[in-house]
Structure formats: C-alpha cells, structure tokens
C-alpha cells in the first residue's frame, strides 16, 4: 500500500516522527513537505534530530496569505498525487498544509486519513478551526486523540471511520524525553542559556490572535512576564520575533530571555525543567500536562479541555494583571491527574494497525 503523508509545519514534523516509525513496517510512505515552515530551526532540525525519513517532495511553498499559501499547496500537492497515485493520504492537525493535503486528495477520490481529528475551539475566527472542521468533513479515517474529540465529531454527524487512537504527541514525548535526557549535547542547553532547572518559566507565542494585537498585545503579555519572580525564557517563533524584539527595546524588559527556536529534544528538556509554562501553543499546553508542569494558556479557549482539570492548565486573557495573577496564584490539584484522557502512548501503533487493515482491503 502506498501512502502519501503531507506535512509542512513544526508540530507536524514532531507528530510524523513517531507515526512514520510505526508505519515503516505496514506501508510505503512517501513524505511531501509543503515548505510552510522553512527556517532551519523550524524544519530541517526536526528531520535530522528525530530521524524522520527525508521528504520525497519538497514543494517550497513558503509564507503568504492564507489563500495564496493554501492555493499554491493545493496545486502542487495535486500534481504529486496525480504522479504517485497513492492508495491514501495522511495529514496531521490543523494547519494550512493539513487542509491543502486533505482537499487535494478528496477531490481526486483518494481516501484521507486525519490524525488529531475532532478537536474544536468553537471559535471560527481561528484559521486552525476552519482547517480542522473542513478536513474532518472530508476525511475517511479520523484518528481522535481523546474521547472529547470523538464526541465533537459525533455532534457534527461524523461517526464513520472515527477511532479514539490516543494522542500521538504523548508517543513523541515518551519516546524522545528519554533520548533528550541522555544526550549531553542537548542537556548543555541549561548552561548555554545560563539557567537552572526549576528556576525559570518557559513561554512561547505565535498564534494569530496574539500577534494580530500587534505591539500593544505583546507588551501587555511581557509586562506580566517582567513582574514574575523567575526569568521567562522564550524560544521565539519567527512570526512573533520582531514584535517581541520591539517590545523589549521599547520597554527595557530585563526578566525576559528571547532565544531562537530550539529543536524538539532541547524543547522537551526546557519544558520538563521549567517551573511553569506560559503559551498560546496547542502542542506545548499538552506537553506541559504530560510532563506535569503547570501551564497558563494565553488564550480565551482551548481545544485541550482535559488539561484544565485541577488547574494544571488555566486560561488567561491577554491582560497583564490576569496573566500575572494566574501565573503566581494558581494552585494545582495533583488528584485531578488520575485520569489519562490522551491514551496509552501507543497512538502511532493504533494508526499503523488501521493502515495495515486498510492495506489488506486495497490488495
Ligand atoms: C502555523 C499554523 C498554526 C501552527 C503553527 C505551528 C496555519 C494557518 N497556522 O502558524 O496552526 O500552530 O504553524 O508553528 O497553518 N516564518 C518564518 N520562517 C518559517 C516559518 C514562518 O519566518 O520557517 C514567518 C513568516 O513571516 C510567516 C509567519 O512566520 O509569514 C507565519 O508562518 P505561517 O506558517 O503562515 O503560520 P504560523 O504562525 O507558523
Ligand atoms: N517546539 C520546539 N521548539 C521550539 C518551540 C516549540 O520543538 O522552539 C515544539 C513544542 O515542544 C511542540 C511543538 O513545537 O511539540 C508545538 O509547535 P507550535 O507551538 O509551533 O504549534 P502548535 O502546537 O500550537 O500548533
């Protein structure tokens, strides 16, 4: 069975790393990289460090408005699909690369497999929400990370092909945390940054809702960070870099340490050793939860509602006082972690098993 996997953005490389390992024995996987993320530390570093098979096609689409970026991907993915005639196409998550891959395949009657199906923020102003809803509605096999995601699909009338596989990001965290801890080149990150375990907070910012607020929004967030008793380390996403640099230059913040985006192994080390995570990232909220690090999510809603139990994750509007208050005054309840809503860490194995079954049927 021939499977085309379309990836393009950082979190998709991380998800693909574990799934591709599991798929190696069950199908011929052809990886297509749309080029949505292209800086070395947003793309190549993940392929190298996580040993993801090299993409057979690199479409080089790059940045652009939603229409231009998605449209160019659609044209180029269609060409690949016509040439390769795969039995199925697999996409991850909710980026423009996800939607373009799914749409190109569905129009050619190629079965679409969606990993991380069924997530909803119920905020249609988020580009990701549109990508998820549209992708789910044209997918044939939908691998949900949680029971909530299964229910969300049911509420939209989608039940065929739906499976609660568990969350592939849990597989990634379990698999790569150990490797990260054993790698002296990676553990040197603390010394390199001049930070001590549990003496810093870790933050990331890249959502459109954050950056659309421009400099004032970033300043409001940074004013809260400035007041926190520990330094805030921020591997800064390229989307937010210039706003973050301007905020620091204009306001002279001294408690914020901006660094370049790091590879996944260093990121796992930074997360597991932080005393708190503050983020608008979907993936990082969950990694904080997996690694039992309290998190403040800098958004007004989350798709990962399970993480909110016992205040392990709390939401905050992008207002200085609220962020500060939530960051210093939230107490977590360890008893709230007795449930494991994200599966058993073998989501990739379940996806591979479903593919094997599908392969039997297309023989
Ligand atoms: C995208 C996804 C988002 C996901 C995020 C993961 C969409 C609509 N958004 O957001 O769901 O959470 O990836 O990180 O698909 N840039 C660079 N170098 C790069 C990549 C981006 O400089 O390698 C800059 C460009 O100025 C670009 C901007 O970042 O315009 C935004 O990149 P884009 O891929 O459009 O969106 P993300 O914010 O990365
Ligand atoms: N990440 C990383 N290096 C960084 C910042 C994030 O490896 O400098 C990882 C992070 O650990 C998580 C994923 O990137 O696995 C999250 O990606 P991002 O926040 O860009 O997107 P989202 O998850 O919000 O879609």
Describe this structure in words.
Helix content is 46%, strand content 15%. α3 crosses α4 (96-107), α11 (214-227) crosses α12 (241-251) and α11 packs parallel to α15 (320-329). β11 (276-279), α14 and β12 form a beta-alpha-beta unit. The protein has helices spanning 10-23, 44-49, 66-84, 96-107, 127-137, 147-155, 168-181, 184-187, 189-193, 208-211, 214-227, 241-251, 264-272, 282-290, 320-329, 347-362; strands at residues 2-7, 28-33, 57-58, 88-92, 112-115, 141-144, 162-164, 200-204, 231-235, 256-259, 276-279, 295-297, 313-315. The chain contains 16 helices and 13 strands. It has 2 domains: 1-166 and 342-360, 3-Layer(aba) Sandwich (Rossmann fold), CATH 3.40.50; 171-337, Glycogen Phosphorylase B (Rossmann fold), CATH 3.40.50. The N and C termini lie close together (8 Å). The strands form 2 sheets. A 7-stranded parallel beta sheet has the order 3-2-1-4-5-6-7, sandwiched between helices. A 6-stranded parallel beta sheet has the order 10-9-8-11-12-13, sandwiched between helices. With 363 residues, the protein is α/β, with parallel strands linked by helices.
